[in-house]
Specification:
This protein is α/β, with parallel strands linked by helices and 165 residues long. It has one domain. The protein has six helices and five strands, in the order E-H-E-E-E-H-H-E-H-H-H. Strand 1, helix 1 and strand 2 form a beta-alpha-beta unit. The two termini are 24 Å apart.
């Protein structure tokens, strides 16, 4: 089961919170946080709680958002050269998605900064694809990662090495 900790703005659009505060899910990478970016069309920004890896996907149609999250996370993980076995395992665990309320202010802060950077990149080049933009955002230094691997892409690599060894 995948837990997505969503902002109030996103919960109003995508559905009510069904996850309990202490739910962690069963995915290797743990919970993801999500917010809505009010672009045209609207976009959802997901940020992994452990690695701070960003993922972007279209909000519309909002009723099917939870059923589309696993595919987009898998696509971004593949773009970061995540081993196929890990991607497949994550996808199996993401078959069920539950929305919950945000619980980690540090991750929400990083998500806010990544949303601002995404807006700047999107404004400068509106033709850039969501996967490409997510990969670009993953190279951003994030203060919670300074003592470890500095950026989400490097943190993902280190996390995957720890998981697969």
């Amino acid at each position: 089961m995948l837990i997505v900790r969503a902002t109030k703005k996103l919960l109003r659009l995508a559905g009510p919170s069904t996850a309990r505060d202490n739910d962690r899910g069963t995915t290797l990478l743990g919970p993801w946080y999500a917010t809505v970016l009010f672009w045209r069309p609207r976009v959802v920004l997901l940020v992994n709680e452990v690695t701070l890896l960003p993922v972007l996907l279209p909000l519309a149609p909002a009723a099917t958002l939870t059923s589309r999250i696993a595919e987009q996370i898998s696509t971004v993980l593949t773009a970061h050269q995540t081993p196929v076995t890990v991607v497949n395992q994550e996808r199996r665990h993401m078959q069920t998605v539950e929305l919950g309320v945000t619980a980690n202010r540090s991750v929400v802060g990083v998500m806010t900064e990544l949303a601002r950077l995404a807006e700047i990149h999107h404004h400068n080049d509106p033709t850039v694809g969501l996967v490409e933009l997510a990969v670009r955002l993953a190279t951003t230094p994030c203060s919670p990662l300074y003592s470890r691997n500095v950026s989400p892409d490097r943190e993902l690599t280190a996390t995957l090495q720890a998981i697969t060894t």
